[in-house]
Amino acid sequence: MAKKLLPLSKVYGLLEPGPVVMVTTVRKGRPNIMTLSWHMMMEFEPPLVGCVISNRNYTFGILKATKECVINIPTVELAAKVVGCGNTRGERTDKFATFRLTPAAARRVEPPLIDECYANLECRVVDTRMTAKYCLFILEVVQAWIDPSVKRPRTIHHLGRGTFMVAGKIIKLPSKMR
Amino acid sequence: MAKKLLPLSKVYGLLEPGPVVMVTTVRKGRPNIMTLSWHMMMEFEPPLVGCVISNRNYTFGILKATKECVINIPTVELAAKVVGCGNTRGERTDKFATFRLTPAAARRVEPPLIDECYANLECRVVDTRMTAKYCLFILEVVQAWIDPSVKRPRTIHHLGRGTFMVAGKIIKLPSKMR
Description:
The structure is a homodimer. Chain A is α+β, with helices and mostly antiparallel strands. Chain A is built from five helices and twelve strands. In chain A, strands 1, 2, 3, 4, 5, 6, 9 and 10 form an eight-stranded antiparallel beta sheet that branches. A two-stranded antiparallel ribbon of chain A has the order 7-8. In chain A, strands 11-12 form a two-stranded antiparallel sheet. The relative contact order of chain A is 0.24. At the A-B interface, strand 4, strand 5, helix 3, strand 11 and strand 12 of A face strand 4, strand 5, helix 3, strand 11 and strand 12 of B.
């Protein structure tokens, strides 16, 4: 996908609606992917994102050690791959190969972007004080990419046990809210 | 709305898809409402929810002092009221009266449920260690209600500046994920 840089001030609009995301990490040259719904915006700019990653996940230890990840936002066309990544273990699966996803170089962090995802957020861990107790990582988005040709991204939103809501129509209301 | 109790183990399926919610609080008998998109699940059961509420919001001080709130989940029929609550200040507006919303008694906390919302989560603040730095509150859901007649809730999901995505179609994929 041909991506352009997205201003960091616009990142919140990608994560506020609650899409399922795919988090990429890398250790010793080996990239991994996990599927995640437990994330939220915490600050507009620089964008801070909170996410909870279970310490039973392979990604937990990598993220704690390397302090870098990419949040990749898929659309419904990738749903089977998203679920596939969620159902497999990174210790024993090369998820890029298994699910035929394409790693692309990030600019400011080591983990790869997933090229097939319409948006990618390069992140650094900035606070781990609540990681032991809640598995909470606080991330700063340091670079953001978006495919400008995707006008109405049909993101997917997890309702539990493999059921997903697909992003529907757009409505606009007069608002002073950012 | 006629609500029934929802098992706490099922709460995550309501918040994971990222709906805009309305948070009710009460102080000195005066209930208030704020609109919120910055929330995430942090634990399945008992359900823990993280949320970031700016210290410029009237709700911040009330929640810090009273340690109780209700997370009310609206559907698209309420969109104008949701935006109205987001655009007004609780210090000087009785939002229940202004937006013709109906307070209903909660069972385990003092703030009211918004009767028109199809789901309501009674919450207690269980951790404020990150409140000063990030305006982060960690809530435990102690009681959950749902209107069983709402089969496909058309929740709304904020994309920024009054633009919302309305929940679309449902897809089901084989998954081992909870």
